[in-house]
Write a structure and sequence with these properties.
The structure holds 2 protein chains of 2 kinds. By secondary structure, chain A is of the alpha+beta class. In chain A, about 60% of the residues lie in helices and about 15% in strands. Chain A is built from 27 helices and 22 strands. Chain A has a 9-stranded mixed β-sheet with strand order 6-7-5-8-4-3-10-1-11. In chain A, strands 14, 15, 16, 17, 18, 19 and 20 form a 7-stranded mixed β-sheet that branches. A 4-stranded antiparallel β-sheet of chain A has the order 13-21-12-22. In chain A, a hairpin with a 5-residue loop joins strand 3 (about 85-95) and strand 4. The radius of gyration of chain A is 33 Å and the shape is elongated. Chain B is mainly beta. Chain B has a single domain, classed as AttH-like fold, CATH 2.40.370.10. Chain B has 3 helices and 23 strands. Chain B has helices at about 5-20, 40, 105-110; strands at about 70-85, 90-100, 120-130, 130-140, 150-155, 160, 165-170, 175-185, 185-195, 200, 205-210, 215-230, 235-250, 260-270, 275-280, 290-295, 300-305, 310-320, 325-335, 340-345, 350, 355-365, 375-380. In chain B, a hairpin with a 6-residue loop joins strand 11 and strand 12 (about 215-230). Chain B is globular, with a radius of gyration of 20 Å. Classes of the chains: A alpha+beta, B mainly beta. At the A-B interface, helix 3, helix 4 and helix 6 of A face strand 3 and strand 4 of B. Chain A: It is a multi-pass membrane protein. Chain A: Keywords: Cell membrane, Membrane, Transmembrane, Transmembrane helix. Chain A: It holds the Pfam family FtsX. Chain A: It is found in: Cell membrane.
Amino acid sequence: MRILHALLAHYRRHPVQAVFLLTSIVIANALLVGTQLINAQARASYARGEQLLDLAPIGEIAPVNPAAGIPESDYLRLRLAGFDFVVPALGTQVRTADGTALELLAVDALALPRAGPGRPASAAPTPAGGQHQSAAFGGFSLPPYQVLIAPGRLRQLGLADGARIRLSDGLDLPPLRVAPDANLGHRLMLDIGALQSALGAPGTLSHLLVFPADPGRLAALRHALPANLHYVPADTAPDPGELTRSFHLNLAAMGLLAFVVGVFLTFNALAFTYTDRGELLRRLRLSGVSRLELGAALIAELVLFLGAGTALGAWLGMLLAALLLPGVGRTLAQLYEVYIAYPDTLAPGALWLPLAMTATAAVACVLHPMRQSLSAPLLGRAGSQWRLSATARRDRRGFAAGLVLLAAAGLAAQNARGTGTALAGMAALLLGTALCLPAVLRGLLTVLARMVPARHARSRWLLADSRWLLGPASLALMAMVLALVANSGLNTMIGSFRAATADWLDQRLAAPLYLRDADRNQAIDDWLATNAPDIDRIDRYRTRLETRRPDGSAVRIEVVTLPGDPAWSNTVQRVDAADAAAERFDSGQGLYISERAWRLDGWAIGDTVNLCASVPPLTVVGIYHDYGNPHSQWMITPELFAHCWPQLAPVSSALRGPEDTDWPGVRLALVESLGLAPDDIIDQAGLKAAGIATFDRTFLVTDALNLLTLLVAGIGVFCAVSAIHHHRIFQQALLASLGLTAAERGALMLLQWGLLGVLALALVWPFGMVLAAYLASVVTPAAFGWSFPLRLDWTPFARLALLSTSSLVLAVLWPSIRLLRTPPAVMLREERA
Amino acid sequence: MKGWLPQHGRAMVLLAGLAAAPFLTGCSNPDDPPPRDDFAVLARAEPGYRQARPGRSLHFPADHGAHPDYRIEWWYLTANLRDDAGRAWGLQWTLFRTATAPPSARDTSPPANAWQSPQIYMAHFAISTPDGHREAQRYARGGLHDGLARAGANAWPFRAWLDDWTLASTTGDWLPLRLSATAHPDGARLELDSDRGLVLQGQNGFSRKHAGGGGSHYYSHPFLQARGELTVDGRTIAVHGDAWLDREWSSQFLQTDQAGWDWFAVHLESGEKLMLFRVRPRDPTSGSPHVHGVLIQADGSTRPLEPDLIEFRVLTRTPVAGHELPLHWRIRIPEIERVFEVRALYPDQWMDVDFAYWEGVVTVSGSGPQNSGTGYLELTGYPRQ
């Protein structure tokens, strides 16, 4: 205990070291815990499946034509025929008066199933079913109604329990009511009558939820469905876990990156506290403390820091997860139509992995410096830990290891098929870069030193001292470079991807106006024939097809149409195409597949696929970019589509006409003369904005985590540099005794760190580019099935350089002020003490 | 005062459903006081509804249908059945209607769509079998969607239904009726007929509830002969027996100081029908149970019984679903010289619905056909042990 006391007394003199060590452990933990918790929460939601309160539908009845709703009389007939496990639903997205998108799900709670005869309530899958039914009578189903909302979503919207949301058309939704246990996630739930009333759309159902029933009754239900409806079992819907796997892997990767940065900093901090206490440890040993006792005391100290650091890190991680979860939920809802729950308490089970990782990493970090400290010679003052020869040797070894990792990254890039391999390659690239850094910096400093003439003694000293500085500072610099490379790489990748998406949207959206009210097509055609004969209306069809991948696994594919007119076929940006692809496509012998279908599902040019029974197998003749679509897609001619699905009406149509057409005028005229809802006519700009918004949402959380990683790296570097600098007293004293003024010494220090920073940044730029290229050509295609050309942009680097330089300058200046004010004699005395 | 209590019991179940609304997980408002109890809801006086009054004569077939201007209404059928092997079965089918807004409010703010109909229905369907009890519950709103409604009650031709649970006349006349209901894997299909007519309860179909004059409109058909089949676990059993239909509608019931009731509807072998009930006070020290009884003779004429002379004695209490229930009684009615034991045929006839109660088949035994028979017993308001 006395020994531990003596060891800890050191931190009273140098509190910054304790703060540094603690911060490093917290950094290693917080983001890792946060991302792990978010992923665990999402996984738990996927495992539970689609839920309505605590009831789990096994599928849904959907209109065959997705653009058409379900007539209420169809639902009534099913209930009157005894299908009591069918519940009406109206799912829709609305915009609030301030433009926020809300996903609403309305149901008739009175129609929810409960335990029945032969299914005693105690054995029923939903013991609480009865509660839902009685609840149906309450505020939920009766005026003034309620909109149930998860607490997380309420916070996200910045609203209070009981508030009313005003929609963009000026109508108010019923008052909000927080429902913590209702598994609502991102969605808001309300009574079907209340929603129809709020939307001014009586008689509208979007789908019918189907709850568990025995196979015979389910078969009877399918048989009883009218031709306009079909049953979609929940298990043929894309598995949300599979659909969103890449997204979660990316999150996990961000967490791991922060963890690695933290581990580097922790190692650095530990090494520091041990070297710095070399003299203390030696004296303790001389006073009779055994190596074992000292080791035990050091381990006790480590456990103390580790306990405090992980507790704080885990707490911050939980805070972070709770903060980010609604954002993640929004992305998943809007991108994948997957809804996760926002619980108030996060699954504590997800904490074990990060904690075990932290403990393992801490042991790995402490082994080397502790062994070195304990085995230091007892007699004679220990030499500097940072002997040039030793650190140079260490850096050479690091460089060799880095090269091996970079080679592994190259290998992974060549062979990456899945997101896991791609991310492992990325990790190797990042670590390899970081490990190579000290040796490269050392080499650059040596080259610089050779270039400086011998008469510039001060410069030469500066360079030589900088090389020495690489010993203690290299780990901090590595952590910084790691974070900077990751940040710059991600920024470049996201920027390039966004630009590619914008270009693609420009090309894809060839028509100035799009209409989505298919019921009014005849009226629109009549109006166009009379008022604007130059304008063509082209129908766009879409359906979803359950099929099998080349490897035999089940997949759901979107099938869309592409009109034969060259004006339209040019809107498809091809990744690759077979010979005479356009002719084969137009003649109905071939189809195009989206890049995702090629990369992730395994179809390739020349493969044949079955579209429907009445059409012979089709050959894949081209692959096209389909950015932002989380589903794989096939594109066929409208003629083939009509052949396979004659009953399907178009989901939307596009209007095209001469260039000088007054499109806003046409739009207004359509709205006014035909009474079309303004929302049903979307112009090109609106669609592009929606496309880009989808894109931005995809990377919203990645962006946030990226910034957080950078921030923690900044804090870490600041701590590291401060700690190093506190222990440069002797050098300062020497310089002062050589006659250098405080200002000169200050300038020298800034110059020295500036030099290291600039050299490190010089590494960040090329490696950031390499990482961006890796993300663009390996990780994103493997994760999402989208590839895009890389575009170089200097602005993020300028921002980064500014940020990291300021962090360094601050870190150098803060302890320097004290040093510069201290008289040289005092410094020398302090150092000897 | 004839036979009003069982109807209170039935009304309770529906109204309790309404009162329980704030209990939804995640929807409950801590500011909402929980309902005091089922009776508090039954005793609630809500302005704006049409009130049951003595002197209003009942008109048929119009009164077979729904009375939307009254707050509460039900169609309540119980049947004591036997299969070909002589085993006893029971069936309960009930359709409750409640209005969520008085007629005046409906006029000032009419519903914007069919879902907002102020008429809400609840139905219970139960089969008592030699191997156990099965019960089901459904809710529906009464709104019309393109001419179709999930639940309702038409007077002519008579049809009361919720989804595929239906009680309806099969010809142009009131009788015969057909009951059909399916709650997989169980179901029932019964033809109900009688050569005797309806029985108007109370004073010409007005059943007084309070000294102050409140009450309900009420008629019964206790003489229905049932024949058909029950389906249990997918197996069909041919059955026949006696059935009893009660119809009642009102807007306010009961007093706030009452806790629950014991209700007996008995088909005696003599061809007579007997109905008895007692409403237990919330505080047994503050008063005695409110008792009511009526003997319906084989020709359909009624003989009210003197409440003070009916003697109820619980012989055994049986634990069922966490409640200690009196499932074995001795009842003496010296006024008509009857003494019999009433015993639950199966203890487990627990209605595990939103607001649970015990309702099931009983056997009645005593000396001679006037003291023997079968029937239904309803027990409500017993606290959980």
